[in-house]
Amino acid sequence: MNPQEIFGSMVFNDAVMRQRLPKETYRALHKTMVEGTPLNPEVASVVANTMKDWAIEKGATHFTHWFQPMTGITAEKHDSFLSPIEGGGAIMEFSGRELVKGESDASSFPSGGLRATFEARGYTAWDPTSYAFIKEGTLCIPTAFCSYGGQALDKKTPLLRSIEALNRQAMRILKLFGHHDVKRVTPTVGPEQEYFLIDKELFYQRRDLIYTGRTLFGARPPKGQELDDHYYGSIKPRVSAFMREVDEELWKLGVSAKTEHNEVAPCQHELAPIFSSANIATDHNQLTMEILKKVAARHGFACLLHEKPFAGVNGSGKHNNWSMSTDTGMNLLEPGETPAENAQFLLFLVAVIQAVDLHQDLLRISIASAGNDHRLGANEAPPAIISMFLGDELQSILDAIENHQAYVAGARTAVNIGVTTLPRIPKDTTDRNRTSPFAFTGNKFEFRMPGSAVSIADANVTLNTIVADVLMGFAERLEQAADLRAEVEQIVVDTITNHKRIIFNGNNYAAAWKQEATKRGLLDLPSTPDALPYLIQPENIALFERQQVYSGEELHSRYEILLENYSKVIAIEAHAMLDIVNKEILPALITYSGALAQAAAGKRVLLPDLPLPCEEKLVKKLSQLIAEIDSKADALNDSLLRIDLADDPLAKARACRDDVFQRMAETRALVDEAEGIVDRNAWPFPGYGELLTTK
């Protein structure tokens, strides 16, 4: 395998277009891609025919409009290129109309009330800023998805709108700084993807994993991640072979998979790509999750993307590394050698600070899910309280600016590792803070809160929009200023003074931080039902409408969808738990305790003088647990019946959190205790010991 030869080989990318399209067609399409100008129908027809010929040469027989509905995964409807002709023959056709626009049944996708059930029509529209690609013999055309009335029914449309919003406002700032050569500003993203691999045969013996993606039961194994021996450890041959095939499949699709390693928890791993535009990064991350699962199956694994598949060990996140770049190659969050003197950098930096402080609620909502609620606040993820980490040097610079003092930069130190044969390593002025939700890491911000299973679109829609809104306010001040430099300095000082509460460079896991955050007036929204009502607050609706990202109607629909999804996930887990308890766990415990009772009775007959047999003690303990598990299962079932009667979506979500989830936790505690007593061969499914050690 030659990575250079296969990279992008299944992508209708710029090099292919430049080679195959007529020059005028290529120029027109390139202008659409770079500057967002409308595409001429005649140009679309030429592109479609060329794209079809290229795809057929690569073995494709079908095409699909590949879109991202509000399920969080991708969707596709395949149509063949084949068209019958007179005489019983057929030709291969693909028109510009078919490329640009498709029609899909929207009736079964989440809409949150945007359309009635009988209003089935939905449209897909080609996104020329994301390259088409071939997957499993089908030409996949990245598209937006909207309703008959034009409302966004997907993740891509709001993302594209937010990218345009950020571009509009950032360009206003850059023009004031004299960057007249810059034509576009694009948010860039590098999403790190964490996941678990377990043996596929064991996976299919766990109905909780099949139904929910996480273990609803599991006694603590003798060894978990205590020794930290899995993190960055030697990759086992079977896993290495899996990773190599994942790389190959991703490289073919133009996904720049770069870094892979073992993560902290047993059986946990990470894959990270090189940065790309937020739109393409989102498409690529959806492909990455799909390919991880498909390739895992071919290697005898099951890939778990749930944020917390196993209790007691670290869960999985998706660190969203975000920045802003110009079409001329300038990173707007690059401090340079002297960040204290870099007015442009400081202006964009404080814009992000203000945006994060003002919109903590929206950032929390952007990563809210039932799965991610398990992970936030534990020692593998930031807490649900939003804060920012800047590092010592930037903090010192901002402190000096706020106090109108000159900043004196200290000499950059080097890390001395005590081995004379190795070179001295220059010390980065910005250490990485693994506990921070939103950390500056040199020339980007690492948003560490997104969960491993979700689309990164929501987080980036929010980031793009809130930063765009702050930049709009800055631009309005600067455009009216008599002295641009003085106004820039005043904006920086004002922003630091008014929004420094969001900056915390310490340990976010510490109990003292929660108390300190409360004193600062920061929001603490520990669960999804706590966070979601903020989405439809009037000021947030006004924000998204002002930046032309969401309408109020679209926001209300997403609020309904998120609440419904949360309640459905909890209900599915609860029903799965009851099914497993009643059909697997209780029968196994009754059978095992019966065998122990027989053994105890036999000993009584043969050895009447023997003290109370061990079997009798276990029978008593198990009989008590059986009764308690049965009782808790009944209580859980009653809770599910109660939530079925709830009409209000928010009340239902809160009942799931406070009632159903609590009953589930109580039931699990008893089952896990029983698992610790029962013979391993008598337990109905593999335990954590088998799941987390088999490779």
Concise synopsis of the structure shown:
By secondary structure, the chain is α+β, with helices and mostly antiparallel strands.
Describe this structure in words.
- With about 700 residues, this protein is α+β, with helices and mostly antiparallel strands.
- It is about 50% helix and about 15% strand.
- The strands form five sheets. Strands 1, 2, 5, 6, 7 and 8 form a six-stranded mixed sheet that branches.
- The longest helix has about 55 residues, at about 550-605.
Number of strands: 20
**What percent strand?**
5-15%
Query: Taking all residues together, what is the mean pLDDT?
Result: 90
Domains (count): 4
Judged by helices, strands and strand pairing, the structural class is: alpha+beta
Q: What integer value in Å does the Rg equal?
A: 28 Å
- Total DSSP helices: 23
Low-confidence runs of at least 5 consecutive residues:
none
Please write out the topology.
Layout: H1 3-6, H2 14-20, H3 23-35, H4 41-57, E1 62-66, E2 78-80, E3 82-84, E4 90-92, H5 96-100, E5 101-105, E6 121-126, E7 133-135, E8 138-147, H6 156-176, E9 185-191, E10 193-199, H7 200-203, H8 207-212, H9 237-252, E11 257-262, E12 268-273, E13 276-277, H10 278-298, E14 301-304, E15 320-326, H11 343-358, H12 360-366, H13 370-373, E16 388-389, H14 392-402, E17 414-415, E18 425-426, E19 438-440, E20 445-447, H15 457-479, H16 484-499, H17 511-520, H18 528-531, H19 538-546, H20 552-606, H21 614-644, H22 649-675, H23 688-691
